[in-house]
Amino acid sequence: MPVAYPPPVVLWSWTGLYIGGHVGAAVGNATITDPAGPAIYGNNVRSTGVLGGVQIGYNWQVPNSLIVLGAEADVAALGSFGTATCLASSGFFISANCRVRPDAVGTATGRVGFAAGPFGRTLLYVKGGLAWLDDRIDITSNALAPPQVTSFDGARFGWTAGAGIERALTPAWSLRLEYDYMRFGDLSMATPASLFQVVPPSLFGFVQTNGGTASISQNLQTVKLGLNYKIGEDLHAHWEPSASDYHLRGTTDAGYVPDADVEIGARVWYSSGRFQKDLGATVDPTQSSNLISRLTYNTTAATGEVFGRVDSPSNIFLKGFLGGGAITSGNLHDEDWAAPIVPGQIVPYSNTVSTVNGDLAYGTIDAGYSVFRGPSTNVGGFIGFNYYRENKKAYGCNQIANPFSDCVPALPNSILGITEDDRWYSFRIGVNGVVKLFDRLKLAADVAWLPFASFSGTDNHGSAPMSSTPSRPNPAAGRACSSKPSCPMPSTTVSASALAAATGRCGRRPPILTTSGRHVPV
Asked: Which class would CATH give 261-522?
């Protein structure tokens, strides 16, 4: 009778054209060089956001080698936002609020990689090339009416370098995790007119200053989770000759049918975080970048958490984590613009620094379905819920901008000045990927979009609490006080050099905007 021979093993290669999509997170930093000289504080705008886009590229694996060369182009929509104090060269000058809002990014790069693992199905690579950014920047002199604003809206060009790891899930599909750093050329930008107090602290001792030209340098860092399809490969193919390797769900092939899998563990994080609360000069949301006050917390924390994940034979999974800990160190900058002292006297810019400690707690639960699942790879979508709470206490008070403002002389760290209690609730829709790199070592990543998020927070300056909800600019009724230790007279408007300085702090509360309020592992 004839002898049956197994089919020959065809070695897979990375060579070929591919297309795909990616989602991820972005963190940018814009550094402003003030034409008036070094800043007391600020001049660095940190913008955070999410991105989603597409890529196309070509790989060529050197014959009889594990070296892979390639070229790729990608473009992504970017939802990013950040504000920070700028042009604060003097406490007698009404400084500005700088806002950065990049909304698209793209790169064109070359890649060099190494195909690792028993079958060369894990690609470790580095990349570099050109980058561009569609950017929007505006500079607003604070507490002035009408607002004094200069803006930039256009493209910026620069270079990029990055590295990543890509895993071939099947002959057609591969999953990647990538980090990129982008640097853009310096931008010359006009600064707006403002006021300088030549007779401090007199309300009528101001002269108008003309705008100048500032230089702005900018970088952007991204982490992306991507899925690629290798053009020409069978969409539903799995690895041969083993029928127990990777399998694309939904095909008729007799693929890998896993057992239930349970994972439980604990971990410790050391993290850093930034929480910022902006108080607008008016109740008009379109003028939310025109400020009279800002609280900025920069803190570090140590937390512990428990985590778990259950994967069922039907590819439905449930995962989550629960943790908490302490804010171990940090500081608070409490800034005020055009702050009244007594009738007839005003401080153009005040900035006090306090030390901060506190505590935090958080939890997340997700349910999802694995699209790809094999012995060393698991990729799926999920929906979930997240809760985060942060309680901060600021002690002491030291004035760094204006000797006519509060906290002169400085208050000791034994005195509690401000408390901040904030909570976030959000629903999540995202993608989870888990790749086993080596025995007992795996890489896991989540990318999630928050279709609904709710923020509620209360800060207390001595005896005057200030509640803030929601987290985007929106008028809210209630009493508010942003000066220490007592609240000044109700809102008034005065004129100086054809410009008006809004001096009020109490009364109807203007919009409040919070940014970057979460701790992230570092």
From this structure: mainly beta
